[in-house]
Amino acid sequence: MNMEATEKTRYSDEELEEFRTIINEKLALAKRDYDQMMAVITNQDSNDVDDTSPTYKALEEGSATQSKEEIITMAARQQKFIQGLKAALVRIENKTYGIDRLTGKLIPKERLKAVPHATLSVESKMMGKK
Length: 130
Hints:
There is one protein chain. With 130 residues, this protein is an all-alpha fold. The protein has helices at residues 13-42, 54-65, 68-93, 109-114, 122-129.
């Protein structure tokens, strides 16, 4: 009665759908945050209708202490995160999502839930830093 004689080499379609949902949720939030950052950058000195939105106000007040350059840096990081999430969706389509690109083994679910665009297990990432 050996339940799993061979090591699992990929996540099941059901598991991939679960990850797709997580990634799409994170992607929607990431895009929203990016759009808000861009609004602050482009409307820094205007008195647009956007000024009345609570989110814009919070970012605008924050921009008094943060330079425009810092917000641009944050927006660039956010854009990179969005690209990482979109690449993860492609890997789901190809059924290669969750496979460590160094070892070819599955990245643990816990890591993927925390960092859904990960392409390395924690072990592989640490080996690369030595």
